[in-house]
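Submission checklist for the structure archive. All mandatory fields must be present; incomplete records are returned to the submitter.

[x] Identifier: histidine kinase
[x] Organism: Parasulfitobacter algicola
[x] Residue count: 466
[x] Sequence attached
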Amino acid sequence: MINSLSGRFLILTTVFVMLAEVLIFVPSIARFRHDYLLDRLERAQIASLALLAEDMISDDLEQELLTNADVLNVVLRRDEIRQLILSSEIPSPIHASFDLRDPPALELISDAMARLIDTEDRVIRVMGNPVRDAGLMIEVTMETSQLRAAMIDYGVRILILSAVISIFTAILLFLAVRRFLVRPIRSVVGHMKNYAAAPEDARRIITPTAGVTELREAEETLQSMQTQLTSALKQKERLAQLGEAVAKVSHDLRNILTSAQLFTDRIDASEDPTVRRMAPKLVNSITRAVHLCESTLAFGRVEEPAPRLTRIPLMQVVDDVIDSERLAVKDYDLKFSEDIPAGLSVRADPEQLYRVLSNLTRNARQAILATGKSGEICISATDDSDAWWIKVTDTGPGLPPKAREHLFKPFQGGTRKGGSGLGLAIAQELIRGHGGTLELSDTSETGTTFAICLPKSEIVFDAAAQ
């Protein structure tokens, strides 16, 4: 209850209303004290007028008049003459004097607070203007005990009334908040939970109904997000089904093409000039088709294992890649080189890093051989305090604009004619699994450079911070 929005709102409302009542209480108690003292002056004036009318009264009657006026002495100034009208014994010296003839508001408040704090019974002098101009000034002396008791009684009643008002106001606001804010918010949360149970069901998408502008905007935004997510899930399901179908077709087609590839060996041995001229093209076409099927199947394997990160000497992996590529170009004028600092080791999966570097090197080799010119491929590496940097640079013709636009997109980012574009997509995915990046650093008519960044930092989960 306390941790709920409506519960906290109830508590805060009660506190703020009480604070407002306290701010009202201070000037109210000061006004009560002022009116109390004026009332005593008025009573004293009536008593003094009664004495002036009779001219002479007994001591008992004089004491009764003072008791009824709740004062000790009455001094009335008439015609510039200060005259003690009623008097009795004063139990102690006068503690303070208060002039009620147009006093400042702050002075009234400070005097009232001082009276509430002071628990001792004092004798004070109070001066004011007589009622209906019955003289120039009236002055009384009185004890403060009854004044303080009356102020406390008034203050308690004010505080009780303030508490009742604040609680009643808080309850009304609590009910209003639950009706106009909490209930619509709970409705939105309920729609979210209902949608999360089956996001592909379009019937679970929220329909905006809130009357509050902000909640209406939240519902409309949620409706838009749910609509887009439902469409994306349906598209993903269709793509998954399509991918499964393509994988099955590619698997069967690969088997068919493999069988066809065996027959091309016998065709290649034919003495017919036309057959010998056309056979290499047929072999190349079938080989490309087989490679496309194998790449499609490899990309479709969502169970690609996570990298097993260990510290490995980078030179060893690079040497294996270059040795493998040199076998494929022993009859061509293509050079391989490496620039790896001695003893440099990186944290990576050796098999996956080999696949990435082999893919980049093979792409560079095919691009250079396609030009019919000589060239060079270099694998270099550096490191800094944050990461290891590996670059594969070639002197090939550079990447065409279309390849750069869709470079790492499957089936779109092929860098050569007949390529599927899966190699770079798979390589980038493997590097991401290492927490790193694979990017095209530079490409032009004089060559291309791909850069691999492998971070040195490790992510450590701190359970104590959760």
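[x] Structure attached
Curator remark: The two ends are 25 Å apart (CA to CA). Residues 460-466 have pLDDT under 50 and may be disordered.
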